Amino acid sequence: MNKIGFRKLAVSLFTSALVFAAAPVFALGNSGFYADMDSGLAAAKKSSQSVLVFITQEGEDELSASFMETVRSDEVQGQIASKYALVHMDFSQSAFQKTVVRDADSKEVQEESKKAADVMQKNSRFAALINPEFTPAVYMFTSEGYYVSHLVLKGDEKADGFMAALKADEVKLNAIREMIAKTKVGKSLEKISAIDALFEATQPEYRFFLIDLVNEAINLDKKNKSGLMSKYIITRTEYDAMICFYDNNASGAVNAYVKAAKEKFLSAEEKQQAYYMAALVLVKSSGPESVPMIVNYLEKSLEAAPKSAVASKVKDNLDYFKDYQAKMNAAGNGTAAGGKNK
Which of 109, 220, 251, 326 is most buried, by CB atoms within 10 Å? Predict the structure, then answer.
């Protein structure tokens, strides 16, 4: 199996100056696989299927190609094609080569390259969300796009080995489906309780895929009768900030954290963390011109919970940036005075 850093890959793609047209809906190709998650989910919803996502680097690890031969075999396809919409995301060098738009190519070839680039961008964003460590990898999702499992595979399984792993995880799939059904019935607090059961049953790193249910819970409980709103507001904020990050929109991420810090259902410590994160994003994404705003957010962070366990850390950072700001101001005043004396 081959290790790959998908989050690093996504950063390089999403900070690129290249801008591609909106992605078309990709039809099922001759290979029997959809090209991206959007088209796979669209097909799954129409046919009441679940989704299997295959992530590979064909030709660059010793297992991806042979594993996909197994998956494409009649023995496997005969058992899974009617139950799952299949999505194949290949991140090999040859796949990336197909995204390169060359002046010497015909207009038709250039258009195909642009489409391939858009799909690669979307798939890299998806892969960054699930952050697979090795290829080949297989993930199971519901037709709603909710994470079910990461199949435990070595990558060298034959048909019977792959099917055994898949059937083992179908137990999880059925349990998740039962939980989803409960989120759609009952009164508001009953729905929120069902959403929370699904949320807690989902591994923390995959809860972003529940964002529609997170937003539904927030809308259903505007007075926080469940006592769960801070958890969901924080999850929504982290999701919004992450999407802004992938879109190279640092100011959007800052605004997401500042907005959260003003939410009445957050504890003082949670508000402190939100302001601190806003300051941190500015530190990571901007220059000296943002120092006054960094100081402002750190001051608000300290004011929110001055006796918290992390207050001393916040104060140390605040003192550092205040000192930095004072030196900047002194240097600016000195330059101005020097110019006047001349």
Answer: 220
